[in-house]
Amino acid sequence: MKIRVGFGYDVHALVPERDLWLGGVKIEHTMGLQGHSDADVLIHAICDALLGAANMRDIGYHFPDTAGEYKDIDSKILLFDTMELLRDAGYTLGNIDATVAAERPKLNPHIPEMKRVMAEVLQVDVDDISIKATTTEKLGFTGRQEGIAAYATVLIQK
Q1: What is the pLDDT of residue 32?
Q2: Residues annotated as binding site?
């Protein structure tokens, strides 16, 4: 068995008049994330981690923000398609460990639903997905509530 590890990172600016999507779940908030797609930073970080672990470049390579078909796309579709790329290459998912950095809104109440949604999309057990939420103690762009960042580490095997 071949085991590989990948790391992903994504960040998007918070802007008015956009829905806030994190982990495939719409979260009520006064602002949403700016991006070509639905700007789900958590899913994007996980996609990058998966692609990196399989040495398949990054999310922008496979789903470019210059392509019209990805405009406002639901990131759950990108996650599904990313996992299909890995499965086609003979990989299975071991686990995901992810962290979202945001001052607001409070994310802990939404984590069980994020895990459930992503497990369904990835067709894995919910226990294979760990999501944590943190703040940056009011430091940096996340602390000033200018944006949200997400980090993900994955383990895949062949």
Answers
A1: 96
A2: 10-12, 36-37, 44, 58-60, 134-137, 141, 144
Binding site per annotation, positions for a divalent metal cation: 10, 12, 44
CA atoms within 13 A on the CB side of 13: 6
- pLDDT tens for each residue of 26-42: 999 999 999 999 999 99
Structural contact between residues 92 and 154, judged by C-beta atoms closer than 8 angstroms: no
* Contact in structure between 25 and 43 (CB atoms under 8 Å): no
pLDDT of residue 45: 98
Contact 42, 100 (CB under 8 A): yes
Spans of the chain, pLDDT less than 70 = none
Q: Rounded to the nearest 5°, which phi and psi values hold at 155?
A: -120, 130
- Is the bond preceding 109 in cis, omega lying within 30 degrees of 0? no
pTM over 0.90, yes/no: yes
